Amino acid sequence: QQLVTIGETMVSFVPQSNEPLRYGTTLKMCIAGAESNTAVGIQKLGGTASFITRLGDDCFGQYILRMIRAEGVDTAHIKFDPEHPTGIMFKEPLPNQETAVHYYRLDSAASHMTPDDIPEDSIKSAEIFHFSGITPILGKSCRDTIYSAIETAKSGKTAISFDPNIRKKLWKDQDFTALMKELASMSDYVLLGLEEAAVLYGTKEISRIISNVFSSSSVKFLAVKNGSAGAWVCDSDHTFFIPPVDCRCIEPTGAGDAFNAGFLSGILKSKPLEICGTIAAVCGSKATETPGDIESLITERELNDILNH
What we know:
about 300 residues; alpha/beta; 11 helices; nine-stranded mixed β-sheet
């Protein structure tokens, strides 16, 4: 596979009407997970991706496996855990506010991943190993698993891609800033939001973010995402501003993962950095057009249609 990624995928219950959950609105079952979103995005854009996780040995785990496999992602390294459940979450649209997310993932199967779950050959033979900052904060065993995967990737000359994907709700009362900065410094590609850059590096000024990220680290490419205001993509010598792409935004959750898929897809196809950024912007914007995380990830053909007007 060109891209291998590891993380937690949950069943996401999405309201079918725009009202608070306390009124008993009808819910639709979808899947949600930063890393599996990116894997599906890569697959739809004509690449090949493999996803590593643990799922509960329950109906929700079976549903997630079926959904990811149906998108063509390699699921050979997904394990079922008979002791712990699949994580679930509920989305709640709130008037004039960002969608609220309620997690029920404590002690989930994925939070019990261990370094033994890492398929070394699969990571060593991939072009890119991608992960987010969510997985290493799920618990010590997950943190050990990520470090083991990074070590394996480095021993196999596989490029490492990292999105901090900061979720303060998961951080609770702990500060994982130092961990996120360390993981970023070990990566080849860092893909983060402007707000996340402010948390990690204390600034929203793009030139200062660039000097922080590229100093004393192995980073080759940096992407800074700023939602509907556009994005920047950089290497150590060049910075390109990528303007936003028009879309009918319904729900922005998952847009960053789609952006990552577009950017990494461009890298896998050896596109110039600015073009990688443009592909990422298109993918990110179009992902906001449905309430689910993977339902509006675009295909290679759709991307080409958009790029060629």
